[in-house]
Design goal:
The complex is a heterodimer of chains A (153) and B (659). With 153 residues, chain A is an alpha+beta fold. Chain A is built from four helices and seven strands, in the order H-E-H-E-E-E-E-E-E-H-H. Helices cover 31% and strands 31% of the residues of chain A. In chain B, the strands form two sheets. In chain B, strands 3, 4, 5, 6, 7 and 8 form a six-stranded antiparallel sheet that branches. Chain B starts with a helix and ends with a helix. Classes of the chains: A alpha+beta (153), B alpha+beta (659). Chains A and B meet through helix 1, strand 1, helix 3 and helix 4 of A and helix 13, strand 1, helix 14, strand 2 and strand 4 of B.
């Protein structure tokens, strides 16, 4: 009776130990620090090469897209400091200038954030648009593409 | 008008629910049948009241009454009626109302179904269910009123997020809510068992079907959510370990552990405290998940906005935990196990290990989800762990669970003899090793995928052998035809064979997950018109880029011709949807879905002069197996919970036909 209980106890300890080890190594391997652009600017040298996340606002007028190189460049700001970002590939749906975004990547020695993932945030709060758009105003954006839609003979 | 009426009905409902709770408790304590009857009537009245409130809000949504803030936020004139209806669960206030309605519906069903049976526990279970409903009504009457007005009423509402204007929006949230609310029933009966001290297996037997049905809805909701995400959100994935996804996954894990461990209690009268803890934990995790997603405490793509609701849910969670844990402590002396473990090589031990693993996975997911909160509280630095953490931790635990799925249902109770082990597991093990070796020879080298196949084949082997052996024995003893014997067998022990079918579904889904993540191919390129990109055996050529007007948006789409081995195969049209008043576009994915592999394309960006477009293409091998596995799981659960009598009749009829 006593021996049986001890056996289960030992098995339990082993399983829990393995679980703890798994969690510990998992956390250690994939731990990512979160910084604001100002914090990153302060610690840039210390965190070089480490995985990190930077959250801020996509600076107005900073977004450049090079379609041939598939290179997206923009700047993240928190109002005090600004961090340049380079991202291979396209941005997610909700990414836009003036909106919040979190970038995951590493700090490159050349002084920019090498992004591996962009997470765009959007707000659920309702704000009445200043200039309400209609379908027509949206359509006017794509005039050149709409023209191609000729009725086929 | 609607606003005042709706708010009044909610207040009335709060009063009725509080009265009914008190009446049920008093009636049960004083043995007053009239009070119990009155409480039962009040449950039905409560259901009617919340139904009225829900219809009022739906009426306002459908008729676009923008004097209600909620309608202005979640509905727009131009929407189809079905999306106006779906506005009810489009954001916080409405989804609370829906939740309260489902909670009242389940209370009414419990009262109607169990009626006069289980006299001793039912009133208390009823009181717990009513108390939960009262909490939701309290939140709506005092904190976030779905019937709040907006002055002046805008001309048009904002509408749902365009991502949500798809038919899936009519299915996925409802399935999840049904699952969440469903678990309150076994929780309520567990509390009733603790309060009355009737701690035998009675409450498990009463709630067995409720639990499995709630599990079915939750499982269906999770799978459906993945499928929805894969088909419409333009990133080619189905699961991101997002806090909101984790919030649904955690109660699922614990509920799965519960469904397994109750079998031990039913058979061996052990693990009584453990089962009470599991169901308490399941329900608490449902509330915790609601707290996570409603409080805005974690940044997540689909979290709702913050407000006082977070604090209220946290308080409610604390109350639930305090209430149930002190009850368990209070009854500790009556919760002694009657049986005990005999051997480590037994079904009991296997199930115990299964429970430890499921709870372990839940714990690691919990830790990963709240990690940023923990580190910020302790060290002041925000540290998060992403997908790599979750995958790294859950893959080995999941593999161990997969292996147990093969062993658990077949290993002998109490103590498995060497003979039992050999008879049940030797053949499946040989099949598994042979199958994995064959795949290795065919060039499968990815370690995780090979391990999944090895364990998966083993499980499928044990299930197949079980079905074959049992059918053969029956044919030999009764002389029935093979098919009839199989059907009768399935019907006679529905719970067992339904469970095995569920396991089969899980294996199929896990194989899909493993292969699609190990052998995924992804490429992105900017193509000029008539230019090609290669991916795997496919070549994709950009033929056209054009914009077109749709009822609610402008769609810019690329026409791609897909070639396989040089021959034209199909045409795909990925695009971007531009909605008025939405500054960013929404992806409109197009893919060639096949059972063996999907070719998935996304239009990532394009030039407005139509000269070029950036296309992201992916090959997702065997991803369809995940959805097929989900369907098999649903099928298995249905087999397991079908009503006995009706089935017996069907079986008799089938037998008569065969004869």
């Amino acid at each position: 009776m006593k021996g049986k209980r001890a056996k289960y106890l030992i098995a339990g300890v082993i399983i829990l130990g393995a679980l703890a080890g798994l969690v510990y190594s998992g956390v250690k391997e994939s731990m990512v620090y979160f910084y604001t652009p100002s914090e990153l600017t302060e610690k840039a040298e210390a965190v070089r090469g480490k995985a990190l996340r930077v959250g801020g606002m996509v600076e107005e007028g900073s977004v450049r897209w090079d379609a041939q190189q598939l290179l997206l460049t923009f700047a993240l700001t928190d109002g005090r400091s600004t961090v340049p970002v380079r991202h291979r590939g396209t941005a997610p749906d909700l990414f836009k200038e003036g909106a919040g975004a979190v970038v995951e990547g590493t700090w490159a020695p050349e002084g920019y954030l090498r992004s591996s993932t962009i997470m765009a945030k959007h707000s659920e709060e309702y704000k009445a648009p200043k200039n309400p758009e209609t379908l027509e105003t949206k359509k006017s954006l794509f005039k050149s593409l709409l023209k191609e839609e000729k009725p086929k003979p | 008008m609607i606003s005042t009426l709706g708010h009044f009905v909610l207040f009335l409902g709060l009063g009725v629910s509080l009265y009914a709770t008190a009446a049920a408790v008093y009636g049960a304590r004083a043995g007053r049948e009239d009070w119990l009857a009155s409480s039962r009537n009040a449950v039905l009245a409560l259901f009617c009241l919340i139904t009225v409130a829900m219809f009022l809000l739906e009426y306002a949504l459908i008729t676009s009454d923008f004097s209600l803030r909620y309608v202005a936020n979640n509905s727009t004139r131009g929407s189809l009626t079905r999306y106006k209806i779906a506005g009810l669960w489009g954001s916080l206030e409405g989804s609370l109302l829906l939740w309260a309605w489902l909670q009242a519906l389940f209370s009414a069903l419990v009262v109607a179904h169990h009626g006069d049976r289980h006299r001793s526990v039912l009133p208390y279970a009823q009181a717990v269910l009513l108390g939960i409903t009262a909490f939701f009504l309290l939140v709506m009457t005092f904190a976030v009123n779905p019937f709040a007005t907006l002055v002046p009423a805008p001309l048009d509402g904002r509408g749902l997020n365009p991502l949500l204007e798809v038919t899936d929006m009519l299915v996925h949230p409802l399935l999840l809510y049904l699952g969440y609310v469903g678990f309150s029933v076994p929780f309520a009966f567990a509390m009733a068992a603790l309060i009355t001290g009737r701690l035998s297996e009675e409450w498990l037997k009463i709630t067995r079907r409720w639990t499995v049905v709630a599990w079915l809805f939750l499982t269906g909701g999770i799978f459906y959510g993945g499928w929805w995400s894969y088909r419409t959100l333009g990133w080619g994935g189905y699961w991101a370990w997002d806090p909101v996804e984790n919030a649904s996954f955690m109660p699922w894990l614990i509920a799965t552990a519960f469904i397994h461990s109750v079998m031990i209690q039913e058979r061996k009268r052990m693990l009584k405290v453990w089962n009470l803890l599991l169901i308490t934990l399941t329900f608490s995790l449902v509330i915790f998940g609601t707290f996570l997603t409603r409080s805005g405490i974690l940044a997540s793509v689909h979290a709702f906005s913050d407000g006082p609701v977070g604090a209220l849910f946290l308080g409610f969670l604390a109350l639930v935990l305090l209430f149930s844990l002190s009850l368990i402590a209070y009854r500790a002396d009556r919760l002694k196990s009657h049986g005990e473990m005999d051997s480590m090589v037994s079904r009991e031990s296997t199930f115990l290990l299964n429970n430890v693993l499921l709870v372990g996975i839940c714990f690691t997911v919990f830790l990963g989800t709240v990690f940023p909160l923990l580190t910020e509280a302790i060290r002041g630095a925000k540290i998060s762990v992403g997908t790599p953490y979750f995958n790294r931790v859950s893959v080995p635990l999941g593999l161990a669970l997969l292996l147990l799925m093969g062993i658990g249902p077949l290993i002998a109770w109490e103590r498995a003899s060497l003979n039992n082990l050999r008879r049940n597991f030797l053949a499946p093990a040989i099949v598994a090793v042979a199958g994995a070796a064959l795949l290795f020879a065919l060039g499968v080298r990815q370690a995780e995928a090979l391990l999944v196949f090895l364990c998966g084949f083993f499980v499928i082997g044990t299930i197949a052998f079980e079905f074959i052996m049992a059918t053969r024995t029956r044919v030999r003893t009764t002389g029935e035809s093979l098919l009839a014997a199989f059907a009768v067998l399935l019907l006679k022990s529905r719970r067992r064979y339904g469970g095995l079918i569920v396991h089969l579904g899980v294996v199929i889904a896990i194989i899909g997950i493993a292969v699609s993540s190990a052998y995924k191919v992804e490429r992105e390129a900017t193509l000029k018109l008539n230019e090609r990109m290669e991916i795997g055996p496919y070549a994709i050529e950009l033929k056209d880029l054009k914009a077109g007007e749709q009822p609610t948006h402008v769609l810019v789409s690329a026409t791609l011709t897909v070639f396989k081995d040089g021959k034209p195969l199909t045409e795909l049209r990925p695009g971007q949807r531009f909605y008025p008043n939405q500054q960013t576009p929404f992806a409109s994915v197009d893919a060639r879905y096949r059972w063996d592999e999907d070719l998935y394309t996304i239009l990532s960006s394009f030039e407005r002069d139509g000269s070029s477009a950036t296309i992201k293409a992916m090959i997702n091998p065997m991803i369809a197996w995940i959805w097929i596995g989900g369907c098999v799981i649903v099928l298995g659960v249905i087999v397991a919970v079908l009503p006995e009598r009706r089935l017996a009749m069907l079986a008799l009829r089938a037998k008569a036909q065969v004869a």
